[in-house]
Amino acid sequence: MPELPEVEALREFLDEHLSGRVVERVLPLAVSVLKTYDPPPSALEGQPAGATARYGKFLALRIGDLHLVTHLARAGWLRWTDDVPARPPRPGKGPLALRLVLEGGGGFDLTEAGTQKRLAVYVVRDPLEVPGIARLGPDPLADDFDRAAFGALLAGERRQIKGVLRDQSVIAGIGNAYSDEILHHAGVSPFKLAASFDEAQVDHLYAAVRETLRSAVERAHGVAAGRLKAEKKSGLRVHGRAGEPCPVCGDTVRSVSFADSSLQYCPTCQTGGKPLADRRLSRLLK
User: Fold this and answer.
1) What b/e string do you get for 135-164 counting C-beta neighbours within 10 Å, with b at 16 or more?
2) CB contact at 8 A, 57 and 2
3) Is the pTM of this model over 0.85?
4) Cα torsion for 270, 216, 228, 164, to the nearest 10°?
5) Which distant-in-sequence residues (6+ apart) come within 8 Å of 13 by Cβ?
6) Which of 227, 53, 38 shows the shortest CA–CA distance to 139?
7) How confident is the model over 251-275, as pLDDT tens digits?
8) Per-residue pLDDT reduced to its tens digit, 213-259
9) Separation of alpha carbons 193 and 213, rounded Å
10) Residue 117: what pLDDT?
11) What φ, ψ does residue 253 adopt, rounded to 5°?
12) DSSP letters along 216-276, please?
């Protein structure tokens, strides 16, 4: 799933390649992709593209007086091309969900792999009309997201810290992969209760959030859209690396599986050397 660093890199990429161009056609091709109907996608045609904004994991493309907003979900992606095929694509065939074509050539496809169709596109007058954007928490890289703001979010939270970091209404933009990376950086168990952190631990975790995300954004900066997935994977230390040695201590990275996801961690770095049992069978470990 694209998370804050990759979506930020896509925002920069679209600002460079889309801004100032005129939209020729917008073709929704998957029944499930379009979540709004007024204004229609055709209202974007003939309009100039402006700046692209990021809201958590959402991209909002300014086109004329409207915004084309998308959330790539777990298996979605944006594929840019300088040479859009002249023949219109057939709806419902393959992973293609939406195509945007620019006057003079070029444009992009929104694609989604797999059978769970969660990629979402909205055409709105204001990005805050999108429910997922309206309920977002603060951006963890914003200038005003300081240590005090972060500490206030954790105070009284009786949930595990892994779930708190992934909750978009608490903090916007962090998903499964970067929450694993942040917790490894901070040396914290994913099952530790958020409210149990002392002041020094909050300091350390706040620094890990900022440093992990800033480093990932820097790595993704300037990378072409088609190479962002590979760049993300290459920079991960524990997520998706179960069975491999931890790059910090050399212990074997372990995994805990859930119904529709999994987490990875290092026992030596994060849980005092104790492997975590499957979440469905174990008590919470701090």
Assistant:
1) ebbbbbbeeebeeeebeebbeebeebbbeb
2) yes
3) yes
4) 50
5) 80, 224, 225
6) 53
7) 999 999 987 789 999 999 999 999 9
8) 999 999 998 887 878 888 888 999 999 999 999 999 999 999 999 87
9) 22
10) 84
11) -70, 130
12) HHHHHTT--GGGHHHHHHHH-SSTT-TTSBPTTT-PBPEEEE-SS-EEEE-HHHHSTTPPP
Residue 231's alpha-carbon distances to 6, 62, 236, 265, in angstroms, are 9, 27, 9, 20
- Contact 6/220 with Cβ under 8 angstroms? yes
End-to-end CA distance of the chain: 27
Q: Taking Cα atoms as reference points, which of 67, 72, 70 lies closest to residue 124?
A: 67
Which of 190, 104, 174, 100 has its CA nearest to residue 141?
Answer: 174
Residue 138's alpha-carbon distances to 46, 159, 278, in angstroms, are 34, 19, 31
Contact 249, 271 (CB under 8 A): no
Alpha carbons within 13 angstroms on the beta-carbon side of residue 235 total: 22
Closest CA to 169 of 208, 134, 204, 215: 134
Query: Length of the chain, please?
Result: 286
Residue 248: how many other CB atoms lie within 10 Å: 14
